[in-house]
Amino acid sequence: QAIEGFLAKCWSLDISTKEYAYLKGTVLFNPDLPGLQCTQYIEGLQKEAQQALNEHVRLIHRGDEARFAKLNVVLSLLRSINANVIAELFFRPIIGAVNMDDMLLEMLCAKL
Q1: How many Å apart are CA 25 and CA 66, to the nearest integer?
Q2: Domain of life, per the record (predicted)?
């Protein structure tokens, strides 16, 4: 049901490819991941994704003052979904089955 609610909200907002990418970055760059050692760096990436989304919405959807808030509701719906389900949605079609915690740690900390 959580996935259905998330998808219904996405479809009703007609989320663009850029908005989807910024939303994905906001969720994936999670500084609260247990065992993470580079939290400030990841928090910075998350803030950059949020700021980019806000700027995009202001430029593209000038007449819709509430759109950024609506997109944040989408984020709250997405955060209510289990991380493994999110990994299935975002990554399985591209790279196969993945463990979200391992992938984030490898992706973000290996480059520091």
Answers
A1: 21
A2: Eukaryota
